[in-house]
Amino acid sequence: DPDSLTNAALGVERVLRSVPQIRPQSVFAEQLDAKPTLEILPDRDRLLYAGLTVAALSKQVSLYQGQRTSVTVLDGRESIPVRIRAARSSIDDPYAVSELPIFLPRGEQVRLSDLAEVRYRPGAAMIRSEDTFRTLYVFFDKEAGWSDVEVAEAADAALKRAIESGDLTLPAAVGWEIAGTYENQVRASQR
To answer: What backbone torsions phi and psi does residue 93 show, to the nearest 5 degrees?
Structure first.
């Protein structure tokens, strides 16, 4: 769940800001920012009554002229990408999009909202993964006078203490791994 991952990263950020070996102003938790996505959820019963298929509805929605934006028509588990070409003011307003005219095979005209639900939802954010695990980074720099290894060990110890004391709660599937230049120092010292 992206929200759980983001909240965990913000919790780690809060803990790391209190570690003396870390410059507090340098601690930064990556965020999963996503642009809103316009979704159109067709009502299959209404489409059937109107004599349209999901594909025919998608085609009509994509025919409007002007600016472009990406829209997703949800058909069960399938997401069908559609481009709407309409005035920017129309695309930015879900109500205006829901008012787009749709022409039926019988020659009648209805509003898109008569055949489908139109809504904005948070879009998909780019979520990194390493070894099949979703990953967010929390960046930080060390205070002067400390080695990378000392800072990494202090950060790791602070996170463990925060979890043990209840100051930091991570969801069951969320963990952390300290990474960075200190890894090179650890490998070099093991040789």
So the answer is: -115, 110
pTM of the model: 0.53
CA distance to 49, 55, 60, per residue, from 76 (Å):
18, 13, 19
Report the pLDDT value the prediction gives residue 177, as an integer from 0 to 100. Answer: 87
Q: Which position has the token pair 């110890």?
A: 157
3-state secondary structure of 132: coil
Burial of residue 101 (CB within 10 Å: 0-12, 13-18, 19+) is exposed
C-alpha angle 23-28-34 in degrees, rounded to nearest 5: 175
How far is it, in rounded angstroms, from Cα 148 to Cα 144? 10
Contact residues for 85 (Cβ-Cβ < 8 A; gap 6+) = 62, 63, 64, 65, 66, 67, 68
Distances (CA, A) of 137 to 144, 147, 184: 22, 21, 19
pLDDT of residue 22: 95
Q: What one-letter code names the amino acid at 56?
A: A
Start-to-end CA distance of the chain, whole Å, equals 40
